[in-house]
């Protein structure tokens, strides 16, 4: 019920503003697309053995993606199945736009901290870091900043080789998460969860 109250307030605010409802998340869907495209770009460097390459000396493609253990984006942002439309007047209550956007915001908070704390800082990461910040600010401007506790997520060990391995796995996880973010923001912008 608490979720519904929050949700209804968000909808009411969106409806009451002079801005058309669908453009509320409009700018964030394009920020999310930029983030994904910049992540995809950096992941193309996988396995290339160039001087000073991020992933030199190992095959990033073979490594497992590492996901943030503290957010619930994958489950919270799961769109409601649309193939079972009959007799479901409770459909909109099973997807919380607010919870989904806050979890996305929480993810961005983690990746922002993490990429900023990577030593040595690498110019290759610049566009991804900027795109991360842009999307975070866009969500925040819409009132969807993450709240609550942020447990520490430690991935750096201080050893250059291990940290590059970690960076590879973490960026792969970020890439997976960015795909989920794009789907969720497009779903929210479409307004399907309110029908
Ligand atoms: C890395 O691994 C993938 C899949 O195992 C393989 O297709 C690719 O050729 C490898 N790249 C390098 C540079 O070894
Ligand atoms: C649709 O809902 C019915 C009844 O709850 C269920 O048996 C069926 O498996 C659902 N179908 C899909 C495609 O989810
Ligand atoms: C993510 O979603 C969960 C489950 O709905 C919620 O408890 C949690 O507060 C959300 N996380 C953030 C950072 O808002
Ligand atoms: C911050 C940044 O560099 N963003 C870039 C991400 O990718 C898009 C398209 O690929 C570029 O237009 C952005 O400039």
From TrEMBL:
It comes from Ctenopharyngodon idella. Residues 1-16 form the signal peptide. This is IL-12 p35. Keywords: Signal. Gene3D superfamilies: 1.20.1250.10.
């Amino acid at each position: 019920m608490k979720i519904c109250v929050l949700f209804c307030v968000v909808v009411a605010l969106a409806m009451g503003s002079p801005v058309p409802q669908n453009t509320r998340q409009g700018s964030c869907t394009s920020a999310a697309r930029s983030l994904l495209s910049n992540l995809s770009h950096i992941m193309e460097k996988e396995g290339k053995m160039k001087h000073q390459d991020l992933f030199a000396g190992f095959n990033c493609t073979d490594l497992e993606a590492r996901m943030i253990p503290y957010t619930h984006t994958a489950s919270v942002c799961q769109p409601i199945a649309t193939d079972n439309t009959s007799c479901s007047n409770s459909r909109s209550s099973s997807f919380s736009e607010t919870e989904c956007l806050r979890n996305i915001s929480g993810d961005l908070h983690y990746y922002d901290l993490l990429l900023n704390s990577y030593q040595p800082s690498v110019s290759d990461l610049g566009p991804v870091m900027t795109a991360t910040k842009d999307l975070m600010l866009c969500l925040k401007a819409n009132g969807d900043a993450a709240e609550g506790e942020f447990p520490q997520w430690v991935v750096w060990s201080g050893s250059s080789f291990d940290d590059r391995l970690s960076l590879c796995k973490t960026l792969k996880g970020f890439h997976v998460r960015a795909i989920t973010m794009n789907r969720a923001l497009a779903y929210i912008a479409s307004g399907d969860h309110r029908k």
